[in-house]
User: Fold these one by one.
Assistant:
Number 1:
Amino acid sequence: MVNIGDKAPDLLGINQNGEEVHLSDYKGRKVALYFYPKDMTAGCTAQACNLRDHYTTLREAGYEIIGVSVDDVKSHQKFIEKHSLPFTLIADTDKKLVEQFGVWGEKSMCGRKYMGTFRTTFILNEEGIVERIITPKQVKTKIHAEQILEKPTIN
């Protein structure tokens, strides 16, 4: 599991174009690495479209956006095309990244238990260190860009 203060792994996986994505490709920029359950579902579409709609603002604030799900490259291509998503999506079909970040586990819906991705966003600084984690209970899909841009309060 990846925690605040940890360095994220360099190899993130394969993107929608079948190319390897390395965190080092984004050195000097902050990264919002967001894990989501499934392409084309209501909550995931709302989240992706919110990030799309605020993409320019996020970039101006120094953020790169990278989405991760266990869907395959073809599914990501359709999702990007249908919703005009301007950012990279990682196809974590072998579940290596979701397990490494600790966001894969047992979920339940309508009494049925199944394995899936917990919607979680890791905010990485310019050196790839985890600065903040927006947990599944905290993520609000329709205002997620605002959550990424929020300055955390220190108690």
Number 2:
Amino acid sequence: MSDTPLARPYILSAEQIAQFRRLGYVHLPGVLTEEEVCQLEPSYGRFMRNEVPGMGRDFCDMSGPYDRQFEDYALINAMLPRVYMPDLQGNVFEAASSGIAGQLIGDDIRLDYDQFLAKKPRRPGAQFAWHQDQGYWPEGTPDTRTVTCSLAMDDSLKANGCLRCIPGSGSAKTLRPHRSATGSREEGHTLVADVASEESVEYLEVRRGGITVHDEWVVHGSGGNPTDGWRRTYVIAYRSPATVEYERTIGFTHSHNDTINWTTTLGAFQES
């Protein structure tokens, strides 16, 4: 797949860059063509069918505990697909997202991790709880600049659980209290932050081939998928080389199989 370059670079407007810096997110339509999205689907499908061996906890249900059976998954999560399937490296979305990340936070960026997320049809419980990505970061990270690019493999709409954000919620660069969604990080990966009823919510609806981009501080999540179709997303996150190198030196690779020998920016997790 690495021999299939991006047909053309995606150039952000001044308004798009300003929105990202002001609100912590931006929607970019038409980043990939239909043909380019189709290039990614065969590899993506192998993960969604649980055909990639040896993943351990890197293949799990992000809306439930690690021990949930595959047939009962609601929100399929495949961490680090480019590690488990090296042919993905250098693909068309990596090329597009790298260029976008460079325009938003500078050319000194490095791909930190990738992730496939898919909400099965008729799964209203396939929800991503409100959270800030910073809650998952190791304590002592030297540079918190990040760009997380999420490609819509299907139309991502309010009806099927698109990304939703609290506008400007990360502008102060402060971390809200988080707690474990399952009561223990050993039982499940997901963290939850509280959102007040009076806070405004923006739903980022994206057509297939478009992407959303968000930073590490904005409070975001997504609803379930009660519709008859899938809602599939391909995520790639970029950070500075110094941050990625620091993560790796303490054993943090973004794999759910990591031996946890570090503390997060939250310190000890609150138990629910």
